[in-house]
Design a protein that fits this description.
The chain has no helices and 21 strands. β6 (68-74) and β7 (83-88) form a beta hairpin. The strands form 6 sheets. Strands 10, 11, 14, 15 and 16 form a 5-stranded antiparallel sheet that branches. It has a 4-stranded antiparallel sheet with strand order 3-2-6-7, with no helix packed on it. The chain has a 4-stranded antiparallel sheet with strand order 8-9-13-12, with no helix packed on it. It is rod-shaped and about 80 Å long. It is mostly beta strands. The chain folds into 3 domains: 13-88, Immunoglobulins (Immunoglobulin-like, Sandwich); 93-186, Immunoglobulins (Immunoglobulin-like, Sandwich); 194-250, no CATH class. It starts with 12 loop residues before the first strand and ends with a strand.
C-alpha cells in the first residue's frame, strides 16, 4: 500500500495497493477496521497478469483518526492465500479550538481590578505553530507593562478594567489552515460608585458617577457610603440622568 502525502480530513485521497505473483490475478479489497470500503475504480492488471493494482479514492473524516486501513489480496483458487497490508491513520486536520475562562474564576463575578486568565485549548495535527488572541475582533499584542500577557495557550489580563469587557477569541494555525474558537464574552462589573459632591449628607442634589460596565446602575433605593465622609446616604435613583456616565439622586 502506497501513499506519498499525509492524509487530511475532508480532502479526497488516492491510495494504491499492489499485489505481485498471483496467477490468476489476485482480488484486492479495502477495509477500515473490519468494514469493507468500495473502490470505485476497477483494479488493473499487468500485461503478463503477474501484477495487480487497486486504487482507492477515499475522503477521511475526523472520526477515522487512529483507525486501521487495510488492503487485502486473495487468490480466488487457493484457500488461506490472503495477504494484507495495513496503515494506521495519522490524519492531518485544521486545528479544533475552544476558549475557556480560568477554572477558578466565576464568570458572573469578575470585578474591576481582578486578574483574569483564559485558556486556549487546541487539538491539532500537525501541532499549531501560532496562536492569535482577539478582543472584540481586534488582534491583541503582548503588553506586559499594561498587564496584557499573551502566550500560545494562555491570555492573562492583570487588574482588568471595565474597558476590557467584551468578546474574546483565539485562533490557532497549522499547515492545514486556521481554526478559530467560538467567541467568549467577558463581563466586568463596576467595583463601586464614586461620590463627586463635597456636600455629602446635606439636603439637595448630588451626583454619583459610575463606569459603563455591562451591569446597569441600580434603579431602586440604594445605600451608599460617602468617600470623603464616613456617612451613609440613601439615594433615590432616577432614569432621567443628564449624561451616560452620571445619575442624579436626592441625598
Amino acid at each position: 500500500m502506497a501513499r506519498e502525502q499525509p492524509l487530511s480530513v475532508g480532502i479526497e485521497a488516492e491510495l494504491f495497493c499492489r499485489a505481485v505473483g498471483a496467477r490468476p490475478p489476485a482480488v484486492i479489497t479495502w477495509w477500515l477496521d473490519g468494514q469493507q470500503l468500495s473502490a470505485q475504480d476497477p483494479q488493473k492488471e499487468s500485461m503478463d497478469g503477474n501484477e495487480t493494482i487497486s486504487t482507492l479514492r477515499w475522503t477521511p473524516r475526523m472520526e477515522h483518526e487512529g483507525r486501521v486501513l487495510t488492503c487485502r489480496a486473495k487468490h480466488i483458487k487457493l484457500e488461506d492465500s490472503t495477504l494484507e497490508a495495513t496503515m494506521s491513520l495519522n490524519l492531518h486536520y485544521v486545528p479544533i479550538v475552544m476558549l475557556q475562562l480560568g477554572k477558578k474564576l466565576n464568570p458572573n463575578d469578575i470585578e474591576e481590578g481582578d486578574d483574569v486568565y483564559f485558556e486556549c485549548v487546541v487539538r491539532a495535527n500537525p501541532p499549531a505553530y501560532k496562536v492569535v488572541w482577539e478582543h472584540n475582533g481586534q488582534v491583541m499584542t503582548h503588553k506586559q507593562r499594561a498587564g496584557v500577557i499573551t502566550g500560545s495557550a494562555h491570555l492573562v489580563l492583570q487588574g482588568v478594567s471595565r474597558h476590557q469587557g467584551g468578546m474574546y477569541a483565539c485562533t490557532a494555525s497549522n499547515v492545514e489552515g486556521d481554526g478559530r474558537s467560538p467567541p467568549l464574552h467577558l463581563q466586568v462589573i463596576c467595583k463601586s460608585f464614586v461620590l463627586t459632591n463635597d456636600r455629602a449628607g446635606s439636603s439637595g442634589t448630588c451626583t454619583l458617577t459610575y463606569g459603563l460596565c455591562p451591569r446597569p446602575p441600580p434603579k431602586a433605593v440604594k445605600r451608599l457610603t460617602a468617600s470623603k465622609r464616613d456617612r451613609a446616604l440613601y439615594c433615590d435613583w432616577r432614569d432621567d440622568f443628564a449624561s451616560p456616565n452620571a445619575d442624579a439622586c436626592v441625598c
